[in-house]
Amino acid sequence: IWKYGTLTVYTDGGGGDGTGGLDDSGSIGGDLSDIEGDGISMRIKSSAGGVIYLRFKSFGDYALASDGKNCSWEQAYSYVASFSPLYYASRSLEAGGGVAATLEVVNYTKDYVLPYYVTTYASGAGDVSVTTDDYSSYSVTYIPAAYPDGAFTADWYSSDPTIAAEVADYEEYIADEYTFVPESTRAALAHIIEEQGWSASDPVGTLINAVAEYVRNSAAYDLGYDRALDAEEDIVAAFLTDENYGSGICSHFASAATVLYRMIGIPARYVTGYAAAASADEWADVTGRQAHAWTEVYVSGIGWVAVDATAASDGPPEPEPEPDDKTEIHVITADASKIYDGTPLTKYDGYEVLNPDVLTAAGHTISVDENSSMNSSRTDVGASNNSLGFRFSDENGNDVSDKYKVVIDEYGTLTVTPREIKLFVPDASKPYDGTPLTSNRVEVGADSPNPLVTGHVITATMTAESTITEPGQTNNVPESIRIRDAAGRDVTGNYSFDMPEPGILTVTEAPVIAVKNFSFTYDGGNHRPVITAENTWVYGGSANEEYYMKNAEFMIVDERGDVVTGDITDAGTYEIAFDKFELYVKKDGAESLVATCTDGAITYEPGYGENTITINPGKLTIHRRDICLLAASLERQWKGEGDVLTAEELKGLDGGSWSVWMGSLADGEKIDPDTVLVSGSISGIGSTEAVLDVSSIVIRNADGEDVTGNYNIASANGTLTLT
């Protein structure tokens, strides 16, 4: 049984402008009589129901009063890892077979709150709070549990060496960061630890319950507590030991429990948010009176778990039931799945109405309301409920949604599976120059079942031993691999791959002659480079040797091995090879001829040869031009039986049935419209895809020549909708 309303909440009472919210200053105590506690902060609907702790943020050090500032909790440093420590306990529950529930939130404040043990993971989240730009309406999945009950499973990360290493680093960090207690506070409360016989060697579950029970029984819960307590230099010490005080509110109980846990050696944090009651599958108001403070402790091998040490009092107000004068429409939403590709997965069609006769009798129709279904999507790997929103219309198209209550009897599942890739470590080499050779390149192999998502980048860290300076070879061993998207967020968890075999780092004694590489994107123009001796490098040898080239001339060779003499416009890879040169070495002040090249044939002087000189031609690469075509979309009213909306109607739109959506054609080049096919049809209310087929597309230049091979062509479908 809990008592709420102990943190200051500023709310517009449900106005929805997102300007109100929880006090995040870390202050302890407060005068509840000045709080507009009945103002609605948000509305929630849980498929599981019960008391739900909606976590806002955690705090750092416990700071005594000083310089006119009251005793309070300081702001915490956010620890960012590839997988947020806030989700460790969620993974523990998943490993133990915990059953997930869905929580929908309509938020009227600026605060993004989440239930404990959420399984809708956000990439790049810290360990203090989770933030988002869109906090007004959202849906998440979570596993209802209360430690130590439930399916918590220790060492859930044991099969993933990378995550195991991160967990070990984090547990080392919090063992210092979240066990700090001021020395004077330790001295004031040491007798409690001794009298209770608490020891860090005791089972952690036993300690957690024992401390919470002690704090609950140490004082009474009373909104009318003596406000002088909040002016004490050390509020926790006064709350637990001063006989002048015998009551307090949740922030006092939570502060006391957090400090005691830390004194025993258990990492603990003071947390603020809401504790809200909800009946399963019913909307419930969350008001300022339900603002709350509690403690979370870190259990090694599991993660952060919530502990509420507030004294018993009247329970939270029961959630008000939804009006019962609405007609229930029972729906089953559809499943959908795909391999992770960085874009949201949605499934707005395929739902089934279980009692359609009710709508038929009323002359009403049902359709998906995409505005209220915006959170019915999944981008990252995992599974979540397809919790669609619906709109009801009468025969004239008027909105009659207020007459109906949708009950989703069975949620479809949106499932995103890991993107399987195969990685390799390219070899790297250079001639001796007295500096270390290292390489952190890791690439997707040609035999990979999937490429990286466009815009994603691999970053790798190699072992400390993966370096070489003197001539010879050594292994280049990857220690950790991360993949980040175009925004820099870590998306490694959305991929499936094995750690690649080591590459080879080679430092040679032989000199290397290299030609500069050139790279362009196809634009129909001539990209034949002008190459001079300044575009070559000669390096290598030993510390007392200097190699250099004279009278260098070049030729360009296509992929068939033919010398190209004219313009170079088509996409492809061309070799920039030597036609002529003279290679010299200056050793101990004396110049010697090493090799000559005539018409591409190299002649070596005595003592030199192919095994002692490496010649690397350059490359001219003209990349294919990327474009994406988008099928048009059309929505109109259904005319009745026999009315069929087909893709043919798209041709009557101003822009036609398709357009170039992303990228552009080279100047003067056009797509043959007869080679682009758009198909699809629908004969009743609903939506279907307008499918764009570009498999036979032909692109021609101004001279009518087929230049299709110079493009990478992608497509995106439109929609055909009858309302």
Structure description:
The chain has 723 residues and is mainly beta. Helices cover 11% and strands 36% of the residues. Strands 33, 35, 36, 37, 38, 39 and 41 form a seven-stranded mixed sheet that branches. The longest helix is centred in the N-terminal third of the chain and has 17 residues, at 161-177. It is flat. The protein starts with 8 loop residues before the first strand and ends with a strand. The relative contact order is 0.09.
Task: Furnish the topology, listing elements before pairings.
Blueprint: E1 9-10, E2 21-22, E3 40-46, E4 50-63, E5 72-75, H1 88-95, E6 101-107, E7 114-115, E8 137-142, H2 161-177, H3 183-196, H4 204-216, E9 220-221, H5 235-241, E10 247-248, H6 250-264, E11 268-278, E12 283-287, E13 291-299, E14 303-307, E15 327-332, E16 336-339, E17 352-353, H7 356-362, E18 365-368, E19 382-386, E20 390-393, E21 404-410, E22 412-417, E23 419-420, E24 423-424, E25 428-431, E26 443-444, E27 457-462, E28 472-476, E29 478-484, E30 495-496, E31 503-508, E32 512-515, E33 518-521, E34 536-539, E35 545-557, E36 563-564, E37 572-587, E38 590-598, E39 601-604, E40 614-616, E41 618-623, E42 625-631, E43 634-636, E44 645-646, E45 658-663, E46 670-671, E47 677-679, E48 681-682, E49 686-693, E50 699-700, E51 711-716, E52 718-722
Parallel strand pairs: 9-10, 15-21, 16-22, 23-30, 25-31, 32-40, 33-41, 42-51, 43-52
Antiparallel strand pairs: 1-2, 3-6, 3-12, 4-5, 4-7, 4-11, 6-8, 11-13, 13-14, 15-17, 18-20, 19-22, 24-26, 27-29, 28-31, 32-34, 35-36, 35-37, 37-38, 37-41, 38-39, 42-45, 44-48, 46-50, 47-49, 49-52
Helix pairs in contact: 4-6, 5-6
